[in-house]
Amino acid sequence: MAVVSDMPTSSLADNASTNDRYARAQARAGVILALPATLLIAALLIGPAILVFFLSFTDTSLGLAGARFVGLGNYLRMLTDPGFAQSLRNTALYVLVVVPTSIGWGLLVALLIAQSPFAAVYRTAYFLPVAATLVALATAWEAILHPSLGFANSLLLLLGASPVRFLSDPATAIYALAAIGVWQLVGFNMILFLAGLSTIPDELYEAAAIDGADRGLKRFLLVTWPMLAPVTLFVTVMTIIRAFSVFETVAVLTHGGPMKSTSVILYTFYEEGFRFFRVGYASAIAVSFFAFVTVLSLIQMRVSERQARWKNKGGRS
């Protein structure tokens, strides 16, 4: 300290000035390095999103000159459009089947794999549908569910049952797509639950064993399930978002048919924008869907923050 105090004031000022110049140079370098990625994000994501938002208030149609400002007309049309109402019902049915089934199945598989000596093999097998291309998987399922040559109907005939037109019958098509959706999401949910299980301290299980909950359902309800609450919330929100975002299997397998029985929200958006070229109306559907996903994500973040504060205050028993 004595050495520093004996230094001339001009030397201290020079050092401070040098540090300031160095900090400014670092800041400029950071801006320059981040600029290409920022411009790319703005050009590919932010810019188109803003454009879609403004187009949702117009009657823009590809191939027609000019566009009129219609205000909330496209959004009001969504409330009275029978085609959009049908897509909402189909999407809701799809979500009601896929979300609880894929979450429950994923949790069950995670619990079983966590105790298995072949955990790595099972993780790989269940995660393959997540890593593979959805269009390729949909094409494979098209062959499996073929009404006359598919493996599914061959198995039914072998068991003495009648063949089922899985994808061409309005009564079964949405459920066939939901089964494929469950198959795709189970592996993703399983990985998340396995990550959650790995964070549960062994001391809690030891304490539960002392209280008599050393195995089975009692141990699961007393320790495992409460400790998985944050992971379960995240898995639920992500599964709902992914279920509402179903598109590839519909586009490849059914094209929204038969008789609009599998026309979901994103496929309706695709048809309005890229088949009927009603860009303004399609933009309104896209903005509404984005708003729904955003609200759902914000709710998940808010609930997660409350859970974290509750635990920090000693709420965990």
From TrEMBL:
Primary site of residence: membrane
Membrane spanning residue stretches: 31-55, 92-114, 120-141, 173-200, 220-244, 279-299
CDD domains recorded: TM_PBP2
SUPFAM superfamilies: MetI-like
Annotated InterPro entries: ABC_transporter_permease, MetI-like, MetI-like_sf
Recorded superkingdom: Bacteria
GO cellular component: plasma membrane
Keyword match Transmembrane helix: yes
Family: Belongs to the binding-protein-dependent transport system permease family.
Protein name: Multiple sugar transport system permease protein
Organism annotation: Rhizobium mongolense USDA 1844
